[in-house]
């Protein structure tokens, strides 16, 4: 009666024990247990080391002022163009403020056809230009996949800059009073600076010699410290500065402290006029001045 239960299974038996797991199931379970984990989703933003980067090319000419930027129809005047450029940089809500400040400086250099310094600033701040076209064009890129142009920061964020921010449209109207101001700006600025230095307007020879040391002392203004942020990532520098001195004294002091031969000062997206005091450029004691170190 119990023979079916007392059967001894030999090594050649084809019957598995009752509690054995089928080999096929074991293999499936084993494969499931050792399957590799899912890959972590990638951000999709290329790193600075893998992103393509081409040398800057000179911007293409622009025939007309833009139509849909402001309520002023083309052609624009010079003053309106400068106003819209300022508004463009002041209203950026994405990206990094310091990067936008850098790009404002690059725009100015490109308008001056100064490609070497513009390229040096991009390299110093780790900003790449995949196809060499800094501004967004109106046509299509060479590969036919859409509008070319644009630059990327170190984190892979795109900064899209319209062509009219970089290039002066050919139909710009130069206003007559602006031409007069431009023609006499150098002498006027020198005269204003002399007035502030002496504190009494155009001085007579006798008054200039009498008490000259006291006038010079008053002219220097208040001694302050200017926090300067270098593009070479060497950290911030605190520069001693007399508030009525021209900003070029800050630039000269930075060159002495760093051993660099050429620097440019930027503040609030604009190039600092080194012939004016920083205060006249909008700077106050709690602001940081960006310093771009250029390789000569």
TrEMBL record:
Domain of life: Eukaryota
Residue ranges, annotated region (Disordered): 1-74, 176-217
Compositional bias segments (type: Basic and acidic residues): 206-217
Pfam family, one: UBD
Residue ranges with Low complexity bias: 21-35
InterPro entries named among the record's database cross-references: DC-UbP/UBTD2_N (IPR032752), DC-UbP/UBTD2_N_sf (IPR038169), Ubiquitin-like_domsf (IPR029071), UBTD1/2 (IPR039869)
Residues in DC-UbP/UBTD2 N-terminal domain copies: 61-175
PANTHER family, per the entry: UBIQUITIN DOMAIN CONTAINING 1 PROTEIN-RELATED (PTHR13609)
Record protein name field: DC-UbP/UBTD2 N-terminal domain-containing protein
UniProt source species: Dothistroma septosporum (strain NZE10 / CBS 128990) (Red band needle blight fungus)
Lineage, uppermost ranks: Eukaryota, Fungi, Dikarya, Ascomycota, Pezizomycotina
């Amino acid at each position: 009666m119990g023979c079916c239960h007392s059967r001894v299974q030999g090594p050649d038996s084809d019957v598995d024990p009752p509690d054995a797991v089928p080999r096929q199931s074991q293999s499936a379970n084993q494969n499931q247990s050792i399957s590799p984990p899912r890959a972590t989703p990638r951000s999709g933003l290329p790193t600075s080391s893998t992103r393509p980067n081409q040398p800057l090319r000179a911007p293409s000419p622009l025939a007309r002022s833009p139509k849909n930027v402001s309520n002023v129809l083309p052609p624009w005047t010079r003053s309106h163009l400068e106003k819209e450029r300022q508004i463009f940089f002041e209203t950026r809500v994405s990206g990094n403020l310091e990067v936008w400040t850098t790009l404002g400086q690059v725009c100015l250099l490109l308008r001056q056809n100064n490609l070497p310094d513009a390229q040096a600033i991009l390299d110093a701040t780790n900003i790449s230009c995949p196809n060499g076209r800094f501004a967004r064009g109106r046509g299509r890129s060479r590969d036919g996949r859409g509008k070319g142009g644009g630059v990327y920061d170190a984190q892979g964020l795109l900064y899209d800059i319209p062509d009219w921010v970089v290039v002066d449209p050919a139909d710009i109207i130069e206003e007559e009073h602006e031409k007069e101001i431009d023609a006499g700006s150098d002498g006027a600025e020198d005269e204003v600076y002399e007035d502030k230095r002496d504190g009494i307007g155009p001085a007579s020879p006798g008054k200039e010699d009498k008490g000259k040391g006291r006038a010079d002392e008053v002219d220097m203004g208040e001694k302050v410290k200017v926090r300067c942020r270098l593009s070479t990532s060497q950290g911030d520098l605190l520069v001693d500065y007399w508030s009525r001195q021209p900003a070029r004294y800050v630039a000269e002091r930075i060159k002495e402290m760093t051993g660099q031969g050429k620097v440019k000062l930027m503040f609030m997206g604009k190039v600092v006029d080194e012939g004016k005091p920083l205060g006249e450029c909008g700077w106050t004691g709690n602001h940081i001045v960006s310093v771009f170190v250029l390789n000569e």
